[in-house]
Amino acid sequence: MKSFPMFLRMAGRRVVIAGGGEQAAQKARLVLKTEADLTLLAPTLDPELAELVATGRARHVAGPVTPGSFADTALVFVATGCPGLDAALHALAKAGGATVNVVDQPELCDATTPSIVDRDPVVIAIGTEGTAPVLARQLRARIEQDLAPNLGGLAALAGRLRGAVARTVPKPARRDFWRWVFQGEPRATWTRGAERDAARAIKTAIAAGRAPDAASGGSIALVGAGPGAADLLTLRALRHLQEADVIFYDRLVDPAVLELARRDAERVYVGKSVGACAWPQDRICDLIVASALQGRRVVRLKSGDPVLFGRAEEELAAARKHGLPVEIVPGITAASAAAASLGRSLTERGRTDRVVFSTGACREGDALPDWADMMRPGTTLALYMAAGAAPALRDSLLEHGLAPETVVDVVTSASRAEESCVSVVLDRLGVEQVPAPAIILVRNEKSSASQTRPMPQLAS
Ligand code: SAH
To answer: Which of 129, 329, 344, 375 is close enough to 223 for a disulfide, judged by CB 3.0 to 4.6 Å?
Structure first.
């Protein structure tokens, strides 16, 4: 970030605009949205600016211009429309110690004006450090569409009622109260223009000391964090992260994803590293249930998709046993990310019409899955938690007739900065240690007779 975004308090502070024409008028309109004390510095003023002076909204100084003209200012805009004159005024303003914006000359700017979405007192500023003004305009148009024109009024009302809410709504319920205001009925009512009804509903709830439908109970969401890259998170997952009171997360959840959570959400690491059992599953179940029973919104954040090799059933059962509302938020699973990294599809018309998700790690004492049985022609096998099982996978598939030269793709840390893709022939799989976390993809294509030998025990 070369520029630091900041909202400046402007009430009563001196702002100087150097210039008396349309460019200066444009800046004056912007500055006069605030309560700044505006001085127009120019030999003559156009009618719009002259009117501002006549009505007492700005002062006029005709000159002469010296560094002192810019002393004690919060901001200076140089906007004469003449590049040479602008440069000279910029030098004087700098000599006067001012923070300066020169219109259309980014290299002379200490401060630049962002694209603004104005729902005062809700103000959204978008900047691209001059790299992509068109993008800034597109973003602004999108946000303009998303925010009701009267949203600012609701925020202003909330501001006026903050004290009353603090007095009557007990602290633990207060966040729910405001969530109800901004996500529930009041906002919907306000947005469709029934502002008085919305205000009345909020005041009734303040008198009652709680939001009408704010359930006192907590909830649990099993949320898919995706394979790693934060922008592979779903919008629904993001919403849950931003509403959570507490987040229990796994070892493979990328820190960039956690960054997106509400700042004051509690974060609890419950990772299980292979072989170590610091966090047995039943303890995790107990913890998330206990938190939700305290009335908290619990996010159980799991890598990839929570319903694939994520022990989701145990957590769902624990939640249901206690009558807690529980929701699954799907995520992008590692196999999908691995296919994307390889730049190929998991299925291919006429060649692979079946995808099998399987695992190389089983509960202690259980037999390994019968991968060979899964590998009939026309199959892509995506193997999770399989780094350590690579030699066993190789031996099993070779023994059952898959060609030794079958290409196997190993994708480690798909979608993360340290991602790597390695292709080996089946014969060589597991000769070198496969780095984790990895997805192993094996394809047994239908038409590629050269890749497969008959699989005797499976041939029909
Ligand atoms: N629920 C997860 C899987 C959890 S099991 C999902 O849907 O993706 C953990 C295994 O997932 C790891 O051992 C590894 O095989 C795989 N995995 C998770 N993230 C991965 C990534 N970014 N790249 C490759 N494999 C990954």
So the answer is: 329
Query: Best of 281, 302, 309 to mutate for ligand 1, by most ligand atoms within 8 A of CB?
Result: 309
Kindly give the number of the ligand 1 atom that is closest to the alpha carbon of 359.
15
Residue nearest to atom 11 of ligand 1 (CA): 384
Do 35 and 10 contact (CB within 8 A), yes or no? yes
Known catalytic residues are 250, 272
E strands, 245-390, where? 246-249, 266-269, 297-302, 326-329, 354-359, 379-384
Ligand 1 contacts (CB < 6 A) are 227-228, 252, 302-305, 308-310, 333-334, 337-338, 384-385, 411-416, 436-439
Distance CA 331, CA 378 (A): 26
The Cα 283–Cα 458 span in angstroms is: 43
Contacts of 355 (CB under 8 A, 6+ apart): 335, 346, 347, 379, 380, 382
Instruction: Please tell me the distance from the alpha carbon of residue 211 to that of residue 405, in angstroms, as a whole number.
Output: 65
Tokens 């429309």 identify what position? 81
- The pLDDT tens digits of the residues spanning 128-162 come to 988 888 999 999 999 998 898 999 999 999 999 99
Which two three-digit tokens encode residue 120? Answer: 């005062």
User: In angstroms, what is the span from residue 329 Cα to ligand 1's centroid?
Assistant: 17
Please give the Cα distance from 404 to 430 (Å, whole number): 13
State the CB neighbour count (10 A cutoff) for residue 343: 7
Residue 305 Cα: closest atom of ligand 1: 7
pLDDT of residue 264: 82
CA atoms of 151 and 3, how far apart (whole Å)? 28
Q: Residue 106: is it exposed, middle or buried by C-beta count within 10 angstroms (0-12/13-18/19+)?
A: exposed
Distances in Å between the Cα of 282 and the Cα atoms of 101, 278, 317 are: 60, 11, 11
Measured CA to CA, the distance from residue 80 to residue 24 in angstroms comes to: 7
pLDDT tens readout for residues 337-376: 999 999 999 999 999 999 999 998 877 777 888 898 899 9
Query: Could you read off the pLDDT of 413-450 as tens digits, one per residue?
Result: 999 999 999 999 999 999 899 898 999 999 999 864 44
Contacts 24+ apart (CB under 8 A), 262-271: 265/241, 265/299
Please say whether the beta carbons of 397 and 373 come within 8 A. Answer: no
- Kindly give the number of the ligand 1 atom that is closest to the alpha carbon of 437: 14
Enter the pTM of the model.
0.61
Query: Angle 171-183/195-208 helices, nearest 10 degrees?
Result: 170
